[in-house]
Design brief:
Length: 135
């Protein structure tokens, strides 16, 4: 499985968890992996790492996202799809040392595929600010 395909699967699970917050995290991961028939050990490891990493660093990731918003925006105004994409990208850029250009490109492509009309521009702008603030 290509990394971009596995990243897309991770995004779908992150989105699912955003929608169903009260469900047990491990149970949700296992159900998802089974339902998607994912048997590639590297893919499973990557997906679990993303989910657990985002969960562990959620408060910090949310603060980073809030720092990208205009002053009159609140985080609950962001669609769950865009929020999930931002969480994944910020986790990988800040905690996994994934090259930010690769990450931004792949997440923007996912935004075009799954998001609203303006999602890709919003995601690209927010992540550009994240990278700028890191340097």
């Amino acid at each position: 499985m290509k990394r971009s395909e596995v990243r897309e699967l991770a995004f779908k699970l992150i989105y699912s968890i955003e929608i169903q917050k009260e469900t047990d995290l491990e149970e949700q991961i296992n159900i998802y992996l089974e339902s998607q028939e994912i048997d590639d050990e590297n893919a499973i490891k990557y997906i679990k790492d993303c989910i657990h990493g985002i969960n562990k660093n959620k408060e910090d990731i949310i603060k980073v996202i809030e720092g990208t918003l205009q002053s009159d925006w609140k985080i609950d105004r962001i669609s769950k799809i865009n929020l999930s994409l931002l969480e994944l990208a910020i986790y990988e850029i800040q905690y996994k040392d994934i090259p930010y250009k690769v990450e931004i490109n792949e997440v923007v492509e996912l935004a075009k595929k799954y998001g609203e009309e303006q999602s890709s521009k919003f995601i690209n702008g927010a992540l550009a600010k994240v990278v700028k603030d890191m340097n």
